[in-house]
Here is the input.
Amino acid sequence: MNNTATYISELLYRYECVILPGFGAFLTRRQSATIEEATHSFYPPKKLISFNSQLKNNDGLLANYIAAAENISYTDAVAKIQRYVLSLKEQIGQGKRITLDKIGSFYSSVEDTLQFEPLDDVNYLSEAFGLSSFVSPAIKREVEITREVYKEEVEAIEEAVPLTFTPEKRREQPYLQYAAIAVVVLGLGGFFGLNQVSNQNITYNDTQNNEADIEVKHRIQEATFEISNPLPAINLVVSKEESLKNSTTSESISEKYHIIAGAFRIASNADNKVQKLISKGYDNARLIGKNKYGLHQVVYQSYSNRIEALQALRKIKKEQSPKAWMLVQEL
Here is the structure.
């Protein structure tokens, strides 16, 4: 039994991109909580799934996961994926509609192009675990009554039921005048108070949305993928001339993998951090300039090899600071 679809579904909870080698990539994008005014339905935040048939190269993520889950070799896991992709292509080529459990359906359109329809039954956003949609009854709101409407109603009442008071009655019951004034003041105060609360709520919501956008951009900047079971090593034997050529080429490769120790708004604080790292033995610690938020970035060290950078990152997180992260950027 081939459980490749199940493994893809499990990886979508942890990663934003899962590639099925030779077939395409499943991508996820976060969607905020939504409200449908027509049905008064509330939906929690979720991950939306899409498919890109152009991303087919094997990145090792799915194969390593299958090898670890089924206790088989990496080569056997790759062969299993190839058989699964071949079966999918044959069925789609025959005009069948293929459904991947908890992911979505594939079919060929009239123009002979591959189409994908995601399923909405599963929410791959782990932060929204346990949240479900619900329907709230409609809220009945009172019709806004302006000062002119109050005035027209009072004039209509005075015409229908004229009131006459003698001087003696005015002196005996002055509280009626104060009571009428109090009712008008309370009504106007409540009306303007509701408007002020509504404006405050709108301002607060706008502020929260802006902060959420900034946080998402910051998390995307700090995102790092780690594969616990890397691809097996391959030993190559090359001639002396090719070795010299390769060494010259490798020297020209820029160090684009940076282990970030911190980002500081004040330059002197960033310089102090560099000196502390050097005193701890990180002789290659340095500043790499400002990020788009205007913060001075300090690195433990920069690498040109991704595997070496990941190994150094795990060691630094364990021995120095769990807040260290890797930035991939050409300087």
